Amino acid sequence: MENGDSSAKQRTVVQAKTWVLRQHFEGFPKDSDFELRVEQLPEPKDGEVLLEAVFLSVDPYMRPYSRVRMKEGDVMIGTQVAKVIQSNNSSYPVGSYVVARSGWRTHTVCDGAELVRLLSDWPKDCPMSLALGSIGMPGLTALYGLEEVCQIKPGETLLVNAAAGAVGSVVGQIAKIKGCKVVGSAGSDAKVAYLKELGFDHVFNYKTTASLEDALKTAAPDGYDCYFENVGGPFSSVAIPQMKAFGRIAVCGGISLYNDTAPQNGPYVHLHMIFKQLKMEGFLVGRWEHKNEESLRRLMAWVKEGKLKYKEHVTTGFENMPASFMGMLQGENTGKAIVKV
C-alpha cells in the first residue's frame, strides 16, 4: 500500500511453496531429484482467482509423464483440491472448492479456465479428497476403461492387477456392480484381505504365489473375458495367454516398467493375440472428458449407496510430497495416495 493513499487497497502478499523437478529421474526417483522453492505470487487480475491447496494427489502417471511433458526446473505436475481464497471471477466465489491441475504447489493464481467446481451436492460426510480418487480421475479411469474400452457385460470374468490401488480397487467394485466375476492381484496379504472385503471373488498376492500362471488358472479355469492392465511387464506376458477368445484388454498403466533404465524383453504375445482374436487398447481418461459430469454423478451415487467403498492413504504435510510419491510407486498405499496440506 502506498503511504500517501489511504484509499489504496491493502495487498496481501502470498508466498507459494512449490516442488520442482530438479533433474529428470534416472531409474527410481530419489530425494535429490526434487527441490522445494518459494515464490511470491502476483495479485489476481480481473477474471483470476487465488487458490490454496487443501489436498494434493500423487499418481503413477507422474513418473512417465515427467519425462515427456516436463523440463528440469518445472513444477511437478499433478491435481489438487483447492479452496478459492481470493476471487475476481464470479464463477468461483471465495470459499468455493475446485479441482485444479496446478501441480505440486500450495497456492496458485489462475484464470479459472481449467478449474472444475466440486459437485454442488457433495455430501458433508464425504471427504473432499475423494475428488482426487473414487469420485475423480481414478474413478473415471476405472469407469471408462471398463465401459468404453472393455465394454464389459454381466456374467463376464475380469482380471485386474494393482487391484488395491486407486484405480484397481474401483475397477473391481464397478465390475461387481455390473454383475461380473472379479479376480484381482495385489502385493501384500493385507491388500488381499482388503480386496476380499470389497467383494472381489478371488484375490492373490502376486509376490508370494509360487506360479502366477497357476494362480490365474485356479482363479478362473475358463479364462478371462476382460483384463484391466495397470502393471505390464512379466505379469502381462503370463496373463494374456489366459484370455478367452475375443477377450478385451484395457491398457491403463505399466507401473512395472516406469523406473526401468533399459527396456524389458519379451516373451511376446502376438500369437495369442492372433489365435484368440484379442482386442488390446491403450487409453487416456481425457478422451471421454465430455462425459465427466454425468460419470462423476454416477460414481457419487454408488458411494452414497455404499456400493463403492474407498480407502485413502493420507500423508500430512506439503513437505512430504516427494516421500508420498515415492512410497506410492513402491506400493505403500492401499487405495488412493493423498497429501493433506
UniProtKB/TrEMBL annotation:
It catalyses: pentan-2-one + NADP(+) = (E)-pent-3-en-2-one + NADPH + H(+); 6-trans-leukotriene B4 + NADP(+) = 12-oxo-(5S)-hydroxy-(6E,8E,10E,14Z)-eicosatetraenoate + NADPH + H(+); 4-hydroxynonanal + NADP(+) = (E)-4-hydroxynon-2-enal + NADPH + H(+); decanal + NADP(+) = (2E)-decenal + NADPH + H(+). It comes from the Eukaryota. InterPro entries: ADH-like_C, ADH_N_2, ER, GroES-like_sf, MDR_fam, NAD(P)-bd_dom_sf, PTGR1. It is found in: Cytoplasm. One of its GO terms (biological process) is prostaglandin metabolic process. Monomer or homodimer. It holds the Pfam family ADH_zinc_N. Keywords: Acetylation, Cytoplasm, Fatty acid metabolism, Hydroxylation, Lipid metabolism, NADP, Oxidoreductase, Phosphoprotein, Prostaglandin metabolism. Belongs to the NADP-dependent oxidoreductase L4BD family. This is Prostaglandin reductase 1. The keyword Oxidoreductase applies. Its main location: cytoplasm. It is an enzyme of class 1 (oxidoreductase). SUPFAM superfamilies: GroES-like (SSF50129), NAD(P)-binding Rossmann-fold domains (SSF51735). Its EC number is 1.3.1.48, 1.3.1.74. GO terms for cellular component: cytoplasm. Residues 27-339 form the Enoyl reductase (ER) domain. One of its GO terms (molecular function) is 2-alkenal reductase [NAD(P)H] activity.
